[in-house]
Amino acid sequence: MNPALDKLTKFLRLESERAYDNRAVVGGLQQMLDPWAEEAKASNLPDSSIELVVSRLRDYGRLSPNSRYESLLGLWNRLREAHPELEENVLLHPSTGDSLPGEQPVIIEADTPAAAEIQEDLPSTPAQEEVEEKTDVQPAIPEKKEETLPPAAPPSPPVALTAPLTTVQGIGPKSAKTLSKLGLTNLGDLLWHLPRRYDDYSQLETINRLWYGQDVTVIGTVEKIEMRAVRGGRMKITEAIVSDGTGSIRVTWFNQPWIATKLKPGRGIVLSGKIDQYLGRLTMNSPEWEPLERNQLHTNRIVPVYPLTAGVSGKWLRRVIHSVVQRLASRIPDPIPEEIRQSADLVPLSVALQQIHFPDDQEHLKRAQHRLAFGEMFLLQLGVLRQKQDWEQLESEPLQIDDEWLDHFTGNLPYTLTKAQQSSLEDIRADMSSSKPMNRLLQGDVGSGKTVVAAAAIGISAANEAQSAFMAPTSILAEQHYQTLRELLPVAAGIPEETIRLLIGATPEAEKKEINQSLEDGTIKVIIGTHALIEDPVQFNQLGLVIIDEQHRFGVEQRATLRSKGQNPNLLVMTATPIPRSLALTVFGDLDLTLLDEMPPGRQPVDTRVVLPRERSRAHVFIESQVEQGRQAFIIYPLVEGSEKVQAKAAVDEHQTLSDDVFPSYNLGLLHGRLRQDEKEQVMDSFRKGEYEVLVSTSVVEVGLDIPNATVMLIEGANHFGLAQLHQFRGRVGRGDSQSYCLLIPDHEDDTENTRLKAMQATNDGFELAEVDLEQRGPGDFLGKRQSGFAQLRTAQLTDIRLIEKARREAILLFEDDPDLSKPEHEALSKELTDFWSIEKGEIS
What we know:
Layout: H1 3-17, H2 33-42, H3 47-57, H4 65-82, H5 113-117, H6 129-134, H7 173-180, H8 187-191, E1 197-200, E2 215-230, E3 235-243, E4 248-254, H9 258-262, E5 268-278, E6 281-285, E7 288-291, E8 302-305, H10 314-328, H11 338-343, H12 349-357, H13 362-392, H14 403-411, H15 419-432, E9 439-444, H16 450-463, E10 467-471, H17 475-492, E11 500-503, H18 509-521, E12 526-529, E13 543-549, H19 556-563, E14 570-575, H20 581-587, E15 592-596, E16 607-610, H21 616-628, E17 632-636, H22 651-662, E18 668-671, H23 677-688, E19 694-697, E20 710-716, H24 723-730, E21 741-745, H25 755-762, H26 766-777, H27 780-783, H28 801-817, H29 827-836
Parallel strand pairs: 4-6, 9-14, 9-15, 10-12, 10-13, 11-12, 13-14, 16-21, 17-19, 17-20, 18-19, 20-21
Antiparallel strand pairs: 1-8, 2-3, 2-5, 3-4, 5-6, 5-7
Helix pairs in contact: 1-2, 2-3, 3-4, 12-13, 13-28, 15-16, 16-17, 20-28
């Protein structure tokens, strides 16, 4: 059958199914005539048949339903005379079908209750802009102006937001499969598929007042339009002259020839886009456009721009979402109680959802964004407050020490504690002496002295005959802590050296078995290790303290597993990554925070400089001068071995070059993550002992390595690292009495303007750098594996300290009134909170 006749059959069958309401095609059957006629000509349908269809349907919309039926029946009988292959009873037997990508708009009504709630005539082709513009889209149900005043809260949700996308008219299985690539599988997904940005075309201008580079909307009349082929017919350019009485402008579209048949001279048009310039005259290239008589969705307003995927066009998705928003948003109940909305000056969720997608103006958009961001942050704050409440309801054995013990501990240290260390030690002492388990985050910049504070906590635990477990993320760091604590604890805390042990993956099996036995019978008082501590064979006699270093590197389950090996043991988590205050309030709101913001006396700031790639040899000469003075140096590379995909220097390759050509008279060590554990430890031990003058390494040295004699940190490909990593690298030097240096060499000279590198050069303050890192890269580096809840954020920014404090204030007030959210008015909020936090209670920190 001729494809144009096949398409017409579908139109008429659907019109019959809809009882001849003239909505089988959006805007009426008459709206499909021009594109259909063009396609019919292209398919060689006889001119007489085309003229018959056009003449019969041109005034179809003016007829009554009965007259429409008679008109269509007469048309069909005439067509069947010329085309016997046509079905006989197409108007008598309605059926359903599916609009597949690539077809003209055929609107199929899904036979589901949900579809009845959101009836909307939509174009059926997500992949083609052409299809969208061939039919003027008008809603099947008269639209109401979006409400700007808070509507009354509905008693229950309007439809199941879990209803599949195929309940939307115009979305069939193939279109739904394409949308699934965007993570869109149901109505709720569409409603919460928020714009990634907006194009503001709300400012109307007359043509005589346009200027180059302006984003603007113009309303005018098509004076002239033509299509021409260029590049041997491979490209088709449609050009129009549009005027508005004050002037005229040339408008150009590329590879959209159908526009020339759609836009006839004399027709009103709305154009939105950027004003360009060609040969001194202002132009518009590929602007958004709509007929003047249409309710503008793509022009003359703030236009949402959504995340897309292959096969889904922006206009098509915008119309689909507009359909769902118009039908559902106003009927979505708000889980945040009215009194909190008033206190926090929030618009209702229904209004926010309408305005976040299709804002009336910038002020409405701003209030919508604030409402949605507050909602997310409010749920985050409620979650961490609930974790804190759950923790505070636990009981543990008090671990107390007197002043004499504390004086003995501090008096036997090889150095004097800073005021910040003394204050943190008092916090920990008070926590551990309570019948509630300690749940504290010890946050301190590189070199601020966290380990000695942890040692004091271990001493308190041992003084009460309890055991302590100290878990570090890497074997290198675990062994370093082991060496430090074996030197410190026997003298300061009186813990016998033989009761302090190390358990890592490389520990021999026989020794592991002996350690496990000694932990179970209580002989070992302090165990330092890696993930090996949480393995099943490890059991404690009386675990009183759990210390987790670089806590963001451990998952929730790992921390919970170690903690479960005791009866509500005290928990001290430590991080050398400075965490911005805004993030600490949110991410770690369930933890008591102790801040080590004071460096030990004698530590000098590391002199940091950005070095141009062409000045690399000067950096090597500087390293030589430091080595000649008996110092040592690190040289860091972003890769282990060379890669075709990543243009950056690699440690293995450069180690050979440096050894042969640059530092032939020195011993150079090589350290990277692919070495076996025993090989890593051997290299580190040799460097610590001074057997290597220079250590070539990857980011494996990022955390914890303490080499007081190292004074130079040279970082190649510095532009590949984040600020947090760069600051950690820099913290590996400057740990002794000598002035130390950090040299940053980017891949290319243009990268010397890299914001991170300039920030590193400007300050040694880790907290300042953390704020910059949070702004630039988001919270990922700080969150680590603490992701549940935070992965749900769509609009809230963890850099917005005012929003965080506002949400926390409201959350605290609510918790004081109804901590269990058991009141009837908090039922919806309680459910929302449960959905938002997907992990078990008490297992976040």
